[in-house]
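Internal QA ticket QA-208
Title: Verify multi-chain structure generation after dependency bump
Assignee: T.L.

Test input:
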Amino acid sequence: MRLTNKHLFLLKAFMHWAALVPIVYLVLAVMTDEAGGDPVQYIIHYTGIGALNTLLIMLCISPIAKRFKQGVLVQTRRLIGLYVFAYATLHLAAFISLDLLFEWSLFFTETVKRPYILVGMLAYLLLFALAITSLNSIKRNMGKRWQKLHNSVYVVALLVPLHFIWSVKSEIIEPSIYIALTALLLWARKDQLKRIFSR
Amino acid sequence: MSNKFTKGLLRKIPWHINDSEVTPEAVFKDRRNIVKALGLGAVGASMPSAAQADIFDLFSKDKEKKNFVTQPLAFTKDTNYANDEIVTPYNKVTTHNNFYEFGTSKKAPAQNSQEFQVEPWSLVIDGEVERPITLGYDDFTKLMELEQRTYRMRCVEAWSMVIPWLGFPLATLLKRAGVTSKGKYVAFETLHDPEQMPGQKNRFLGGGIHYPYVEGLTIAEAMNDLTFMAVGLYGKSLPPQNGAPIRLVVPWKYGFKSIKSVVRIRVTSQRPPTSWNQLAANEYGFYANVNPGVDHPRWSQASERRIAEGGLFSAKRIPTLPFNGYGDQVADLYRGLDLRKNF
Ligand code: HEM
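Actual output:
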């Protein structure tokens, strides 16, 4: 079966639902104390992991599209990518508003002093650039440079697991699993990556 | 920078626990229905694992949450060592915990420890002492005179609370045992019981710590009047997530020094190994005195997020004080010691 545009519509609707329900869940969990008496760290972790999971799902799309010859799937990547950005924005906003309580000078000194925050910041700035250039009109105007810029999603995919494992105190198993998953997904497109980086 | 922080938090409010702070059962059931109505079951892969566990929890057939039963405790003396700062509400003190034996997230200890058995309990005080002592569960409250002490608690992760503890000075116990002239340090050990403590059984849940958790103090620190053995908080015996049935509280040190659910206190002649220091010596020192001048490699210790009353946005960032504000009582212990090196 070849997926058609009608399927695509349904699939996208499903993706919106799947990306938004966890946020509704988070809000409910926080409101009902299900996230603990002081849910700040919970929210930062939840949105950070949410962004990373969404990123990994996005990286699965083109291998799946290729393997099953379902070209239209590729058109879901922008939607998923924007949710990566949305979760990352919530994550950053939670850190600044709930943890640092808008102590901006602390935010700047922490960004400069702590490598793991700096790595997160680099990843976030790249995601930001990808998100604003995802508009069709901008995409057309950028021509070839668009693809070049958007190849940096692979850099984000390397930076975020690094940010993760660097942020933990001792619980290294979960980030290690994420590093392995990311490596697998990058390995799956190693020929393409070779081409990009040899250019 | 520090003058931008909210100074003080000086407002004394009488605290008391009322039942409305505990989630009523009806609300709890409602919550399930909301989650069910959202059709959350299919979300699967896009959800963080902790959240998934919650959902599975919500879907598992009416497994009512059993709460650990605490007992009211009487005390003879009540001293506030926290400048009348606002006391952190009971429900926050008991649902925001670091106790990796019950899982690494802040809410895991409250969730995974409610069936923890504290009776019978046995706490051994031995090593370089004249009269080794073994205390049972009832002895903590029957043999010892309990007092209430309200202390600031500063976590190494840069958040803090103010908690009314019940207990007795560690020195009282050590004097009963009679420390010998060879006694230079005191080593503490948490219960090791993987059947009851899932983090000890499963490396993933336990966050990579080597169990049992161990801590240590110098003998001078242990004999300081502030060093406290707590058996209760807010007028009642300790819930498991806070270290039932007996735990250490050292208010001028980062929270990880205040070891929970203690089964052994051993006076030693050598400095004992301590858990976090073994795991990452460059991040967690043996002394671990609260010190705004020495940052953790990954975050600043100059200020802290004070967890007090109110919702998410009501927390305040306040400057962290040397020795957590207890310098008058303890700074002498470290005279001549370079606290930047001996962090
Ligand atoms: C300026 C940007 C960023 C800042 C300041 C930041 C800050 C943080 C902080 C404070 C933590 C938690 C440390 C802890 O309490 O243990 C964290 C963890 C994490 N962050 Fe970020 N982050 C940033 C960007 C990102 C981005 C762009 C992503 C993903 C796309 C991300 C994903 C994660 C993940 C997966 C974790 C681990 C969560 C966990 O431990 O469960 N972060 N980040």
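Spot checks passed. Residues 169 and 180 of chain B are 19 Å apart (CA to CA).
Status: verified.
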